[in-house]
Amino acid sequence: MTDRIEKSDAEWRAQLGEERYRICREGGTERAFTGKYWDNKAPGIYVCACCGTALFDATAKYDSGSGWPSFWQPVDAQCIECETDTRYGMTRTEVHCRRCGCHLGHVFEDGPPPTGLRYCINSASLDFKPS
Ligand code: FE
After folding, report:
1. Is 24 a known active-site residue?
2. Beta carbons of 65 and 112 less than 8 angstroms apart
3. What domains, with CATH codes, occur in the chain?
4. Predicted TM-score of the model (pTM)
């Protein structure tokens, strides 16, 4: 795995702008059905909005009906890391980009085969690279 990226809050804010900063660096969530990619069906790769690491392939994307881009597996288990999130009175598993710590979304155990996982990811945390 490549080296981790560390930047100051001011550097991330300047790079990302307010809305993306709020989601990527402060763990925010975009409103359902408002992001760029929830309904994107094109082939390609979704990379981290902060550091450009490849995170999800379009071949693992599916329509979960949630209004957020949903995937049943990451490109590589090493590219993300998970952490328990107990905010808002819920216990959820939060997903970060391992390289830069970008908040991506959460993973739930109600996804489709073969993994049974649903990576529920903010569009704002991703950039799409069409293939
Ligand atoms: Fe990243």
Report:
1. no
2. no
3. 9-130 (2.170.150.20)
4. 0.95
